[in-house]
Each structure stands twice: as C-alpha cells, then as structure tokens.
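Model it.
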Amino acid sequence: MKSIRTISLILAAALVIFGCGKKAEKKAENTTPPETRPVEDVLNPREGKTTIEDKVPEKEPEPEVAKQKPTEPEMPRPGVSLTQKDIKINWTDKGRTKMTATAREMIASESNKSMTVKGFKGTMHQDGSGATISADEAFVDAVAKTVTASGNVTLKSTGKVTSVRAPWIKWYSKENRIIGSGGVSITSEMGTIEAPAFEGDTKLNTYTLKDSVKK
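Modeled.
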C-alpha cells in the first residue's frame, strides 16, 4: 500500500510539473520580443532596405511653361520727307505775311512741319517792313515759328542802312526778335562795330551788342 501511494504521489507531481512547463513554454512564446533592427541599419540603411525615414515625398512635376516667341524690337518708322529744287516760300501767320523766301534746294518733313533749305534768301516782315536775309543754309520750323540760318549769314534792314554779318542767327517771328552769335559785325551810319553776339528786333531798328545770347 505504501508503494502504491508513493507511485501516485510521483505521478501527480509529474503531471503538475508537466502542466506548468507547458504553460511556461506557452507564456514564453507569447512574450517573445518583436524582431528589431540594429541601430546602424536605421541610420545607414543597407541596399535593398527601406525605412520610414528613407521615404522622401516625390515632387509634383512642375507645369511646363509655354515657350514664348521673343518679341522683336520696334523699329523707328522713317518720316515722310520731300526734296525739291528752286522753291519759293510764302510764310503767313494769322493772315499776315511773315516771310517770303527762295531756296536752291529744300528737304521738307511732313511729320514735324519743318524744312531745311540751302541757298536761302528771303525777307522777314514786321509791320510792313523788316530785313532781308541770306545764308548758305536755314532751318524753318513752322510749328515754333522760327528760322535758324547758318553759314555766311547777312541781314540788311529795309528801313535804315544797317547790316549784320554773323556765323549764325535765329529769328523768333512771334516775338519779332533776332539773335546772333559766334562773332558779329554790325555796320550802320555810325560805322562798323564788332562783338561776340547781338540781339535786336526784326527791323533792326534797335539792337544790343552782347558777350553772349541765350537761345
């Protein structure tokens, strides 16, 4: 009886031990830590492995810019001009004759109402009288109402015997004013006087000798 009891105790203990082993083994299986990657794999991913840190969001393709044809620079358009020889000029202002002249050759511009003449000879009028003028070349501005003559310019009054010689002169018809510079020589009843510049009226009735003049 004693031996049978001993055997029973041994079997019971074996069952207990066996059962606990199974539970421990099962528990061990459930508590196995997940597979981890070495730190160096995360910091320096090896070829063929990708981590969250490795993934870079792809850039959206930029829209293609339509190729524009380069614009050509706008070229200046030539003004309309007219060339004529042996011409006559009759310049009036408010129904009054301001100047009558002739020229050997003329180049006129329709765009700015001006003309350049060569072999210029004419008469500038002021209240029924005035002065004659001759020059190698003259620029007539119909808008500003001015005449600029250059090259062997000679003025002579129609009322008194007064003449002016100068490299160039400019006549302001609206103001009845004439200026000249570059070394002028004025001859009158009093003799001949030279000066760097002068300013006078259209008739040459009055004039002033100056060192310089403002245009």
